[in-house]
Fold:
Amino acid sequence: LTNAKPFLSYKHFPDTLIVTGRPDLSSVGGDVSPLKPWLVQRSSQVRRICSVCTGVFCLAQAGLLDGRRLTTHWQYAAELAQRFPTIQVDPEPVFLRDGNVFTSAGCTAAMDMALALIEYDVARPWLLRSHAR
Amino acid sequence: MVLYDRTNRLHEETRLSGREPRSVARQLYWRAKMNQPPQLRLVPSQAKNSALDPAGYPHRVAILALPNSDLFDIAGPFEAFVRAGQIVQQQRTLAAPFYTVDLLTVRGRTIPTWLGPAFDERQAVPVVQAFSRYVDCYG
Structure:
């Protein structure tokens, strides 16, 4: 993996934005504050916004998940629900979709969510066109 | 039941259109043929924001990796989207991969991961070593 870019210098408009988290939740709050304005701005421009594992904390702190139903790694579900009471946390599913927000648990669950997004992009237009004829 | 409804509908369409009625069987044959799965024709998106053109391609995926993310949380979606983009490009003979995947960092160009390995833009291509025996692990 090469060609990583600092988010502030990223000028493109992504179709899908995925935020990955980190296990040490205690220090998450300090780091995401510079991300908030960027995330809020980009969330209105992307088709869907996704989180993996504790990346959901980052989106929640940016205020993008109020009233949403979502999931995260089961170890962090209780803390997420406690810190953000306006969010409906369901620790059971591998990944969850609520509108244009996709959230997943950690590790291999991220790949399951990615494959579901790919299926939606690739198979759904084909099925819709097939059905329309 | 479905065939009966469809036949009635075809009769009704023929009556309303005022055209010479063709045989219902022939019309059903053509309808069935038309319902064959079509080849999906994708066109390169002209929109600056690919999110506004879901039918076009490439779809741009941005993965924002916080420092000390789990390695697999980054690598899993990255691999899935890149590989899928290549497969769709190959299968549908597209001019470019179906997905463009960008990796974003919070600061700098290096993403340290929770277990140690870091993604670094400046990292050179690793030297490939050839082994004459089986390798039971890579370190």
Notes: The longest strand of chain B covers residues 59-65. The helical segments of chain B are 2-17, 24-34, 71-91.
